[in-house]
Amino acid sequence: MSQQDFLEIRGLHKDFSGVQVLKGIDLAFHRGEIHALLGENGAGKSTLIKILTGVYSASSGEIIVEGNAFHGHSPKAANDAGLGAVYQDAELAWNMSVAENLLLGSERRWIDRRAMEKEAKAILTRIGLDIDPSARAGSLTAAQMQMLTLATLFHRKFKLIILDEPTARLSGRESELLFELIRRFKAEGLTIVYISHRLNEVKLLCDRATILRDGKVVQTLQREEIDEALVTRLMVNRSASDLVISNPGLATDGIALDVRGLTTSKLASTDLYVKRGEILGITGPIGGGMEQIEKALSGLVAYQGQISMDGRAVTFSSPSDALAAGIALIPEDRRKQALFPNLSMAENVSLPVLGRLLRFGLVLKSALLGHGREIVNQLSVHPAAPATKMRYFSGGNQQKAVIGKWLKRQQKVYIFSEPTAGVDVGAIRQIYEIMLKMAENGAAIILISTSFNELLSLSERIMVVHSGKVAAEAPRSAFDRDSLLAATLASGSA
Amino acid sequence: MTTVTNAATPSRSEAAGQDKTHPFVRFLRVWGTILVIAAVAIGFSIASPYFLTVSNLNNIIFSMFTCALLSIGLTYVVAAGSFDLSIGTTVTTASIVCALCIPVVGAPMAIVIALLVSMLIGFINGALVTWFRISGIVGTIGVMFLLEGVNQYLTGGYQIAVGYDETFFRWLGQGRYGMIAVKSILLFVFFAIAYVIANRLRTGHYINAVGDNPLAAYYSGIPVYRWVIVSFVLSAFFCGIAGIFLAATSSSAQPTGGAGYLLEAFAAVFLGATILGKGKPHVLGTLLGVFFLYMVSNGMTQFGIDSSARKLFNGVVLLVAVGANAFLNKEELHLKFI
Predict the structure, then answer these.
(1) Candidates B202, B209, B219; nearest CB to A337
(2) How far is residue A202 CA from its own chain's centroid?
(3) Predicted local confidence at residue B20, as pLDDT
(4) Which residues in chain A are closer than 8 Å to B223, comparing Cβ atoms?
(5) What pLDDT band is residue B16 in, cutting at 50, 70 and 90?
(6) Residue B151 maps to which CATH number?
(7) CATH class of segment(s) A5-242
(8) Complex ipTM, two decimals?
(9) Is B12 on the interface with A (CB under 8 A)?
(10) For a tag site, which of A15, A276, B198, B217 has the least CB within 10 Å?
């Protein structure tokens, strides 16, 4: 163990009832470094994190923290060793105040709300966060929640913080703020383990990057060695050029969805249309109004304005209305909003078309499985096991199931919200191809995303929404990465 | 549709996609509870020659009738993700309404009225936990107290007798074909109906989906409130049937006739959830759960074992079965204490 190492992992193995998930990990994290952990879903990242945070214990191998062996059998042991993690969904007590969350576990015997808020304010100021300590945690934005969670770990004197996809739900500007906070932590001597599918962030932020594949360390790269093509090749073991995809121009003349004067409490009057076969990309800062378009069009928020589909006026007051009119939403948070974890893959994809699978009014298992198998084959879901419970599938395959749910309903308009958030590189391309194929078959697609790569690859037309207004709208050819970033960031000064 | 061949190696993706447990643990998870039931049954059969006879089997099924219907109904509510604590008193109300109506409108019509009243109670329960945003536990406790008051008022605290000339009504509760009671046969008919609703009609599938992830169900365009309400109406409907047969069996309605069945029903539903390793309530499991509780009670009575020991045994079985199942499933972080 060298002097600069904070934590060293030696020959770490983990198996779940005989199935090896980690096959001998050797890895060291330095003090005061930001270290990226990259790998496809199933490569062993989450298992490794869970061992470091004491959720699982290792089958064999050792973990050495500051020269002492760490026997993590519980999250408490990990906390005591100074190891902590921030997961994708920031874990906060929503009904408690910012101060109460921040000081949770270190309250004095006599609870004095005002003193707590003062103490919290001091901590927040020290790390450069401007959050009202008396605010209810549930009222914060996604970005503030992430940062509050980080502040909590900082306050608890954690020495190694694992961040799991921290920017998955943040806009570009919010991510920048988060990065600043992370760099400040680094300067304080903390070790940050950074897990992300977004390679540009990794290049920007991290000192080193370790690539995991199939439960083993493939390679650890220095910052200057981090290169998209190389990393992708190491991760999926095939060439990155496979990932380049573009929309060949699939729009037809007919307008599938025409929206005029769409107004909600957070969106000023907006007009938009999508042609059959067209993919319309919508981007902007999170909370800037683009999610209002998605919610209004899928019947989730009250709105004013006219929506017509194929020239027929429609109104939505619930998701069922929108679905009946022909709009399906593939929501961002699929675990919470789209999937039934304890139902099988077949049952999940059958639910929207259950009426059509009936035989003499009865639901037959064979019909469900047949339908499930059809979807599984069509979307190359892996493993091709329609009877397996949904929660055993990886992120990318779960996303395919969500798409599969609506495929047979033959909706006219599909709204994809962050379709590849938390999806591994291998599956991203497959999902893109599925979307293009749907457009080719005449579906109108609205793609709401904060990934510029995704927007530029798939869209024929791009709209930028910020501060509750449409800030820019132009054909895809008018944008490149930089101009899109500029249009999105412009919101900050507005 | 064009697809890309998945570059993933088979070994890894199988690990990601499938149950990573030892075959023996998997076997126990599926068959454990049934093995215990079978072992106890075999033990009783060896110890007593009378235990495994048609007439004794009929006794067990006859005695478990009320509890079985309540539990089957409750299964829908628990599958939908809620609780129904009013089932015991709903049974009482149904039996009282039925007994009160028979002299006025005749038995067939009285049965219909009792079922309608029960379903109305179920609808109120469902409305409370959906539109009125009251938690299932609190809302149905409220209804439970309310019904206790109604039951007391309707009966004045005394039993209501049903005339001996009501032959059809008596046949329902007391009729026999040889050694088999009409009630025992009908229990299987009602179970078959419940099974079809739960597994072969859309109703059951939507109730399961709502219970598994209500938010996803809402986003998927499933009318979540409707199916929660339907689950409560189904629960109350089966309570109604139980109440009618309770009155038919004793030719009378008691002011507190069904109250004792509530906790047994909960025990049966959660015991049943462990059967076949489903990990969630299902009607077949519930039926077997009820059967187990009543079989043990029957067997122990034959050996003259005290009722305190029986209760003790029921408690131990429930804790061991549910506990063992949770233990065999303990891959996930457990943070739900309801």
Answers:
(1) B219
(2) 15
(3) 53
(4) 320
(5) very low
(6) 1.10.3470
(7) alpha beta
(8) 0.75
(9) yes
(10) A15
